[in-house]
Specification:
Layout: E1 4-7, E2 28-30, H1 34-39, H2 50-69, E3 73-77, H3 85-98, E4 103-108, H4 116-120, H5 128-134, E5 143-145, E6 151-154, H6 164-168, H7 170-181, E7 186-191, H8 198-203, E8 209-215, H9 221-230, E9 236-242
Helix pairs in contact: 2-3
Bound molecules: adenosine-5'-triphosphate and magnesium ion (MG).
Residues 2, 4, 41, 78, 81-87, 110, 113, 115, 193-194, 242-243 line the site of adenosine-5'-triphosphate.
Protein name: Putative exopolysaccharide biosynthesis related tyrosine-protein kinase
GO molecular function: kinase activity
Keywords: ATP-binding, Kinase, Nucleotide-binding, Transferase
Length: 250
């Protein structure tokens, strides 16, 4: 049973940094199949209904907090693996892009298990790892799924087992800074690994805030408490309870 109950709670504060420049004129447009989107639970493959509505509610709450604090870079992570971070990050990004005043960049920053491209059904030639390791220009990585306006993906490519150092590197910090500041109305969503890897913690200082995906029936209280302790210096935008069974009718 697929269901998503977004619940947002507390916030803390963060600051913005100055920017460098990257040109985005060569973003490639790619056909995406509605059937693939639907198979991977992406809202762009769904008709209006409760599934789409859950992410619109999440979008509204997230936008409120981002605007209140002047934030535009958020990470999606979770205490345990396979909680649904990638699906949640993509759907949040898509729902934000549905808001006419926003452009959205979704960055696959899970260098260990990049999966954003798989969910959209394409295999990227280059990804974030190629920029970080081999200086492939960012503009050669960017992809716009056809028919989805105001939405650009910076995909991952080959999996990298030792990625924490790369995510914590000054080069990554400069990239995040550039991505955050290039367009004033843009929100950047980063899909991260789960929090028991060093990666998510290494990357957290780069973003304004994090959204925690909790997996109903699997994330334990201890895992959640540990996650909040680990992220103590990163503002928590809220928690999203994923894979929850709907309550029975009274
Ligand atoms: N709301 C949901 N209901 C049912 N299944 C879901 C839901 N959200 C995600 N899933 C499924 O759970 C699995 C894991 O999802 P996803 O890849 O998004 O998790 P993840 O946290 O990004 O995993 P990883 O730790 O490997 O990065 C996928 O098979 C996905 O289709
Ligand atoms: Mg993932």
């Amino acid at each position: 049973m697929e269901s998503t109950v977004p619940v947002l709670d507390k916030t803390r504060t963060a600051s913005l940094q100055p920017a460098a420049r990257i040109e985005y004129t060569t973003t490639r447009s790619l056909e995406v199949s509605r059937e693939v989107l639907r198979r991977h639970r992406l809202i762009a493959g769904y008709e209006p209904g409760p599934y789409l509505d859950a992410f619109k509610v999440l979008r509204t709450k997230v936008l409120q907090i981002l605007r209140e604090h002047g934030w535009n870079a958020l990470a999606v992570t979770s205490p345990n693996p396979q909680a649904g971070k990638t699906v949640a990050a993509i759907n949040l990004a898509l729902s934000l892009a549905l808001d006419v005043s926003q452009t959205v960049l979704l960055v696959d920053a899970n260098l260990r298990r990049p999966a954003v491209h798989t969910a959209f059904g394409f295999t990227p030639r280059y990804g974030l790892a190629d920029y970080l390791l081999d200086d492939v220009p960012i503009e050669r990585l960017l992809i716009n799924p056809k028919g989805i306006g105001r939405f650009v993906i910076l995909p991952g490519s080959r999996p990298l087992p030792d990625s924490a150092e790369l995510l914590a590197s000054p080069k990554m910090a400069r990239l995040v800074d550039e991505l955050k500041h290039r367009y004033p109305s843009r929100i950047v969503v980063f899909d991260l690994p789960h929090l028991t890897t060093a990666d998510a913690l290494a990357f957290a200082p780069h973003v304004d805030a994090a959204l925690l995906v909790i997996e109903a029936g699997r994330t334990t209280q201890t895992q959640l408490t540990d996650a909040l302790t680990q992220l103590s210096t990163t503002p928590i935008l809220g928690t999203l309870l994923n894979k929850a069974e709907p309550l029975p009718e009274p």
